[in-house]
Amino acid sequence: MSKLKLDLHDIFDQGDKIEQALNDILRKAVEKKIRLVEIIPGKGSGQLKKRVLRFLDQKHIRAMYRRLEKDDKNFGRIFVHL
User: Fold this and answer.
1) Is 57:50 a contact under the CB 8 Å cutoff?
2) Total-model pTM
3) What's phi and psi for 47, nearest 5 deg?
4) How far apart are CA 40 and CA 62, in angstroms?
């Protein structure tokens, strides 16, 4: 199974770029019919992960995926199942 991966370490402090990157990766996954997107906000203080989860919880974004999974073995990783 193929997946897309988005590492947010490089843009953690650039809010508009974060949302753009999340939008782009989800659209690309839908277009290419890829069923799994791995998002890596990193461990840090947890603020970036919270921001990503808030983004993914928006109604129009939630409609794009089936399930969201927070990796229980790695706090700094989120899986989005389409």
Assistant:
1) no
2) 0.89
3) -65, -40
4) 18
CATH fold of the domain at 18-81? Ribosomal Protein S8; Chain: A, domain 1 (3.30.1370)
> Can you tell me the distance from the alpha carbon of 27 to that of 58, in angstroms, rounded to the nearest whole number?
15
Beta strands at 67-70 and 78-81: parallel, antiparallel or unpaired: antiparallel
Backbone angles phi, psi at 64, to 5 degrees: -85, -20
DSSP string, 32-60: TT--EEEEE--STTSHHHHHHHHHHTSHH
pLDDT tens digits for range 54-75? 999 999 999 999 999 998 888 8
